[in-house]
Amino acid sequence: MLFTAKAEYGVRLMLKLGRQGTDRPTSLKAIADAEGLPLAYLEQVVAALRKADLVLSARGAHGGYWLARDPATITMFEVIAALEGTIAPMECFVREDMERVVCAFETGQALDPCATRLLWLRVQGGIERELRNTTLAELVDFSRHELHDRHEIGAEVVTRAANVATTISVAGDTAPAAGLAVGQAAAV
What we know:
Residues 164-188 have low confidence and may be disordered. This protein is mainly alpha-helical. It folds into 3 domains: 1-85, Winged helix-like DNA-binding domain superfamily/Winged helix DNA-binding domain (Arc Repressor Mutant, subunit A), CATH 1.10.10.10; 86-134, no CATH class; 138-187. The strands form 2 sheets. The chain has a two-stranded antiparallel ribbon with strand order 1-2. A two-stranded antiparallel sheet has the order 3-4. The protein has helices at residues 5-20, 28-35, 39-51, 76-84, 117-133, 136-170, 174-178, 182-187, and strands at residues 55-58, 64-67, 94-95, 100-101.
């Protein structure tokens, strides 16, 4: 099963709002620019999130969006369901009028029982379980650690480059050190 761009953009929007906190609204344009997302499409995404009571908004010069609740209480199931609707691994699993997963064989439309139903029910259950068990706070924490780790790795490369340049300079071979790039030092 593939989630749409709407789900991806919605999760990225929620992450951005989760990192901002609830003390001040964030403009949708600022989020669109920071995340490289189309503003017009993000407006549709945020409307669905507002309708699901996941985000709040204020108009005006200092307006914008913020989370309606603490990130620890917002599950990814809520976010994805608000944006995608019923989560189903196969088209035959959805009855729009019921907004729940229903196999075509349950409705009496098929002559033989579905041999793959158990598999698709397990797939759907696994996806829903993981989405329900994953909170926005977890993703925010993970993204902060990822960002921190990237900065640490970058700092380590710069430090290694400086150490290599110093070692080459001390050895009396200053010509190669002058042309040594940080990317080259990382390979040393």
